[in-house]
Every structure is written in C-alpha cells, then in structure tokens.
Amino acid sequence: MQISNSKALLLAVAILDAVNAHTTFTNFYVDQAPMGDGTCVRMSRDIPKATWPIRPINSQDMACGVNGDKGVARICPAKSGSVLTFNFRDWPDGSQPGSLDKSHMGPCAVYMKKVENAAADNNAAGAGWFKILEEDYDNSTAQWCTSKIMANDGKLSVKLPTDLAGGYYLVRSELLALHEADKSPADPQFYAGCAQVFLQSSGSSVPKDTVSIPGHVNMQHPAMTFHVWNKPKQFSFPQFGPPTYQGGSSKRAIDTRANQPEQTLGLKPANCIMENDNWCGLTLPGYSDEKGCWASSQKCWDQSKTCYDSAGPVGSKNCKNWESYCESIKNACASGNFNGPLSATSFLPPPPSRLSTSGFSPQSAPKTESEQASATQPKAETVPVTNSANGDNSVEGGSVNTCGSNGGSKCASGYCCSSHGYCGQNDDYCGAGCQSAFGNCSGSSKHKRAHIIGRPHAHILAGKA
C-alpha cells in the first residue's frame, strides 16, 4: 500500500512550480535550536504560489501571509530574551540552495502580537501588532537588509524583549522588495509569515505603540515607491509602521513577581515519534496476535495518508520515512511476526542541526527625529544610462529581462537564461541550470555586465540568478 508514488510526485511538481526567485519564511530556530521545517509556522498552503509576494497591500494576507488566518497545530516555546532566527528560502522544501534573488532589495522588520491562542484561526489580521526590529539601508556597508539576509544563508535573527508579559504570541517576519517600486503602477513586494510562539516570561509589559495589519502602510506612503535603482551616495529610507518597541515603554511596567504562565496549547504530543511540518507520527498500539498486527498496520497507513494530505511547501520527506515504517509492519504481519509494534528507530531521520551562529541580527535603534524627517523626502539621482552589447538601453548592475520558466521569453543575443528565469552574462546565469532554449548557455561572458531596463520584472544581475 504505497501512498508516496502519486502524492509525493504531485508535491514535487507543485514545489518546482513555486520557485520563481521569490521567497518564503519556512522555519525558525530558538536560541539556535531548530524547530523543524514548517513546524509552528503559518505559511501559504498553495504550493505553486508559496513564494509569491502578497498583493494587494491592504489584503488580510498582509498579517501572516496567504492562509495566515489559519492556525497550525503546534506552538513553539521561547524564553524571555531568546533569539529567534527566521529562515527564508526560494525553494521552500530546501531541495536547492538560495533564499532570495539579489534584485529584491529592501527593508525587513519583525512584529509581534499577543493572542489568546496562537494556534487558533482568525486572530492574525487586525489591531495589536508592535514592532521589535526594523532594518532598511545600511549606509556604512551599502547594503539593504534583504542583501544581508541573503549573505547569511537566508537567516534573520531577533532577540525577544525581556519585559513582555508571558503567553501566546504571533511573531511576524516581513521583507519588502522594492525592485519594482519605481514602475507604473508601483509594485512593492511584501513577503510575510508568522511563527506561533509561547513566551515563557515573568514580565508584564504590554506595548502601547501598536498598529493594525493590514493598515500599517498604504500605497500613498513614500516607501512604497522608493527608487532602489538610484545611486546616491547615501540612502535615507522613509520608514513606516510604529516605532520599534523599547523595553519599558509599555502600558504596564515589568513585574518580576508575576507568576510565569505555563503553556497548555499547541504542545508536541508525548507519543510523537516522527514529525513532518506540523504533523506527528504517533506510537502505534501494541499487539501479540494476527488481528492486532493488521489493525496496528492499518493505523500506521492512516497516519501516513494524513501526513501526505497535510504536507505543505516544505515537502513530505518524513511522510516517506513513515511510509517505509508502515511497509515494514505490513511485511512483518504478512510473514507471521505478530509481536509489536516494531521499533521506528531505524526509520527516523537524523536530527536537524543546530545553528553554529544566530545569523544576521540588526537590532538597530530607531532613527532620530531629524533622520525620520529627512527620510520622508529621499533624494533621487539619475542612474547613468549606457549602451549594452546588443544596443539596448541598460543600467550597469540594474534591471534585467525575465525569460524561460519566468515568463517564456528569450533573452537578447549574447545573454544566458538562468535556472530561475533571468537574463545575464556571468556564470550565475550561464552555468548550472541555464535554459538553453531561451538564451546562450556556452559559458559566462567576460564583458562588463550591463542589464536591460524597463521590463515588467526588474532584477539586479549580481550573484545568484
């Protein structure tokens, strides 16, 4: 009784379709300990579109992403002052490396919202969100927050405030890619997802500067049309949303005598022996006769079906492992071995690795009033326009055509179509995965890179294509 052949194939095809050089928040770590792929994470269950940006920005999906109004079964514990590390992937199942295309330049932020039950439905969109981290353009390194995340293997870390009241929270990561914000109409691309967390804390602070999401930004805000392709000596980005929460700036002060609440919801079942996403494979009932053996075998297959049915963008790797376990029980029953259940130890995957470091963590202080004032009027400078090798107008290190699997078009003469569907002239585009039907794949060009502008999708041609 094999389930994997059809369902795993459908999942694999859907995951392949999802890759469009965008990104999604797939998993996180608490103090460098992995919670598991998809575990405690609200993310899109529409696998082919899982990495797509959220549109429009007044959509309810802005809170926790598509399907973010639906809670998942698990809630992960974290302590006051713990470091949460969010992981972003452009291949949600991690089958290929990469987090985000380098064209997707922009700021990032992390928000929190206290809720009665982090696993409940319909509690994401609306009021109560406060910001605990924001980072935009770092003039000292000439990097956007998204660029730093890419340089750190798709990871963004934030230290949780130490004075917050304990209880259940949604912790929301937000990336904003501005590579299309200069178009008409402007297309700022938000990527948001939420972790379901139980905060173990004896604090009692409740932040006063909260906002509603959607509603923390609108298309009239200058950040939504900010021109990242301009090349001034320094950027001054117009921040949006509430001020970043500073410990103690709350409705109630810290009360260290307060009783620390205990988590009772979203716990990992005690008899959970294998996990996939938010599914748990549970210990099978014991048996000592043929009837009991086949009954236990059927329960195993029932759980296997549930695993595949619930598998999302992060894949079904452990559903396959569980299926192999069920197959071994079926074979034992068929051969007359009616004592069990058999041990699942040999079918368990290796435990996920801890992080050696927590990754990139800006934890930057809010801008001063003068910086905030100047940020609302960013200065723009004209990007020098040159001629590319094929005679089209281009911008050095600027925008590019899409091609192949990312739009179906062919690249201009002399350009390669990368595995992600962007035109370029170095090994990132002409090497592994290059789509020869849509461009040249004979190797990287030695010409200085200059890239075509004015296309429906604009992407910078530095690094991974």
Strand percentage lies at 15-25%
Element-by-element helix/strand order: HEEEEEEEEEHEEEEEEHHHEEEEHE
Unreliable residue stretches: 9-19, 252-257, 364-400, 444-465
Rg over CA atoms: 24 Å
Sheet bearing the most strands, described? 7 strands, mixed
Q: Helix/strand/pairing class, anyone? A: alpha+beta
Report the principal-axis shape.
globular
Give helix % range.
10-25%
Q: What is the tally of beta strands? A: 20
Number of helices: 6
Distance between the termini: 41 Å
Mean pLDDT score, rounded?
A: 82
Describe this structure in words.
By secondary structure, the protein is of the alpha+beta class. Helices cover 15% and strands 21% of the residues. It is built from 6 helices and 20 strands. β16 (386-387) and β17 form a beta hairpin. α3 (290-310) packs antiparallel against α4 (317-334). It starts with a helix and ends in a 13-residue tail after the last strand.
Short description:
This protein is of the alpha+beta class and 465 residues long.
Key structural traits:
seven-stranded mixed beta sheet; disordered C terminus; four-stranded antiparallel beta sheet; alpha+beta; 6 helices; 465 residues
Helix and strand topology:
Layout: H1 4-18, E1 24-30, E2 33-34, E3 41-42, E4 76-79, E5 83-89, E6 108-115, E7 126-135, E8 137-138, E9 143-144, H2 145-151, E10 155-159, E11 165-177, E12 189-202, E13 211-213, E14 272-276, E15 279-282, H3 290-310, H4 317-334, H5 369-375, E16 386-387, E17 393-395, E18 416-417, E19 423-424, H6 427-430, E20 451-452
Parallel strand pairs: 4-12
Antiparallel strand pairs: 1-2, 1-5, 3-12, 5-10, 6-7, 6-11, 7-13, 8-9, 11-12, 14-15, 16-17, 17-20, 18-19
Helix pairs in contact: 3-4
